[in-house]
Amino acid sequence: MAENKIFAGPKVRRIRNTLGLTQTAMAEALSISPSYLNLIERNQRPLTVQLLLRLASVYKVDIEDLQGEAGGSIRQLRDVFADPLLSGELPGDLELVEVAEAAPNVAGGILKLYRAYREQASRLSDLADLLASEGRATAIAGARLPMDEVREALEQRANYFDGIDVAAEAFHAALAPGDDLLGALKTWLRKEHGVVVRVLPIHTMPTLRRRFDRHSMRLFLSERLSHHGQLGEVAMEVAQIALNDQIAQALGGLALSGSEARRIARFELARYGAHALMMPYDAFFAAAQRARFDLDVLRARFAVSFEQVANRLTTLQRQGQAAIPFFLLEVDNAGHRLRRAGAQGFPQARFGGGCPKLNVHAAFAQPGQILVDRLEMPDGFGFLALSRTVEGPQATFGERVRRTAILVGCEASLAKETVYGEAVAALPPVAAGTACRFCERQGCLARAEPPVTRPLGLDEMVAGLSLFDFQ
């Protein structure tokens, strides 16, 4: 207690005001001077052990209440003011401490109002999605970050940009890289633009994976990156130079509202261009058809990662040369949906991607293995779902590995055209849904939320299998 100084001025002031005491009266009861009490109440002096015991004895105060910190409320208040709706209104830590310490009931009220606001925003979003799935567009919208705007723009269209793909294919043919694409791209950067690629140790770039120094014309890569990761970063740099006009044209077609959203979208389009350089359309399309879309065979043939080949598989939608319309979903182990793409606009209405039963969540228990499922939605529609974990940059000792999981899916009726068709045909279907809030399956053991389309069933005499029974 002596080592951890306790500043509890607002709490002492609240005790005094509740009892209707002056500073002089309280100071006399505690055997300290009024000026010292004044410093304590303004958090300019800590409470000593003796003074803590005296407060507890004289005013019957729980010492734990005086020692307890408002750290939890402060963190929650900080989250509230980090909302895009309150952009630019974030108070300093001192103000948050003052609110949490001096007016805990006010802080609690703010947090309750914010939780209610987020719940209503979530319900409005669910309602908008539900109406949109029925073909009725709505103007319901909440505050969105630029990243959310970009994701929505990319998810609602086909994941194919013809201009970028055609230019990438022509560039790859002229480059003629043979079996060493990474080496050929580095040579092109050096000869054509004077850019030298260097791999730096972790201690030199502890928080960066890539950095371009315009003054020295050097592209620095972190040694955390695998060979596939280095290839992807160098290909992105080349795409931003060689495919600049095509990327700008594709960017103009997305109709984004702000400069930050356009900057993020340009980054995503550059990554698309990098994949197009690494896996040229004609060659990749032919290989995918021959391998019957075996992702492991394709990533080995093009010397790329599972994540890179999965992303490329969703882009094979060239007119007159289209493959199975695959879609992709990426999540982390906390269930956050990081990316959705493919199938000529992500199939939100029928697939959703928010069901806990999806094998993309189970993949974390079996890292590195492809899990195959046949999903059956409430309307009887079916999907083939392939899921596998992917690793992020190399972690050092003591760091937690970044691991996400990718689901690649297509309509179940097309599964026979893939190498996974026979395996999935022998599996019993998994009764999945778009998301718990839209799913009306009774007795679902995995249900995490009640459906917005049904009232809750509150019956003291009967309890169903689900945590959220509904009528």
Question: Mind explaining what this structure looks like?
Answer:
Among the domains are: 9-107, Orthogonal Bundle (434 Repressor (Amino-terminal Domain)); 144-278, Arc Repressor Mutant, subunit A. It has 19 helices and eleven strands. The protein has helices spanning 9-19, 23-30, 34-41, 49-59, 63-67, 71-81, 93-102, 104-133, 146-155, 162-175, 181-193, 227-242, 244-252, 259-278, 281-290, 295-301, 306-313, 359-362, 421-425, and strands spanning 196-200, 210-213, 218-222, 317-318, 321-322, 327-332, 337-342, 371-376, 382-391, 403-411, 430-431. Strands 7-6-10-9-8-11 form a six-stranded mixed sheet. The chain has a three-stranded mixed sheet with strand order 1-3-2, with helices on one face. Strand 4 and strand 5 form a beta hairpin. Helix 2 (23-30) packs across helix 3 (34-41) and helix 6 (71-81) packs across helix 7. The longest helix is centred in the N-terminal third of the chain and has 30 residues, at 104-133. Residues 12-66 form the HTH cro/C1-type domain. Belongs to the short-chain fatty acyl-CoA assimilation regulator (ScfR) family. One of its GO terms (molecular function) is DNA-binding transcription factor activity. Keywords: DNA-binding, Transcription, Transcription regulation.
Features:
434 Repressor (Amino-terminal Domain), Arc Repressor Mutant, subunit A, six-stranded mixed β-sheet, three-stranded mixed β-sheet, DNA-binding transcription factor activity, TransReg_Diox_bact_type, 45% helix, 471 residues, DNA binding, alpha+beta
